[in-house]
Write a structure and sequence with these properties.
The protein is mainly α. 64% of the residues lie in helices and 5% in strands. The protein is rod-shaped, with a radius of gyration of 31 Å. The chain starts with a helix and ends in a 16-residue tail after the last strand. It binds zinc ion (ZN).
Length: 88
């Protein structure tokens, strides 16, 4: 290997290294974006789950009869005051 080709080789290596750094930065940046997107999606999913699936969360929400306004227990499907079916 001549001195000239070694120099070219090193220059080439440097160029590749710089390119790789740039790619790594981009990769890490998009990885960060992906992680935060997944995190926010997960928090949305857990919020939806607690809102729709958790029975305790459902019981905590006050429900009232749409006809007479009487307070209703979560398990009631008919109003205990006026007997109208409860809209869920
Ligand atoms: Zn009622």
């Amino acid at each position: 290997m001549s001195e000239r080709s070694i120099e070219e080789f090193l220059t080439d290596l440097e160029a590749r290294g710089a390119e790789q750094d740039e790619r790594e930065r981009m990769l890490l940046g998009s990885l960060d974006e992906g992680i935060s997107a997944v995190r926010s999606a997960a928090s949305v999913v857990s919020r939806l789950k607690s809102a729709s699936e958790s029975p305790s969360a459902r019981k905590q929400r006050p429900r009232f009869c749409g006809h007479c306004g009487a307070p209703l227990a979560a398990e009631h499907s008919f109003c205990t005051q006026c007997g109208q079916p409860v809209e869920i």
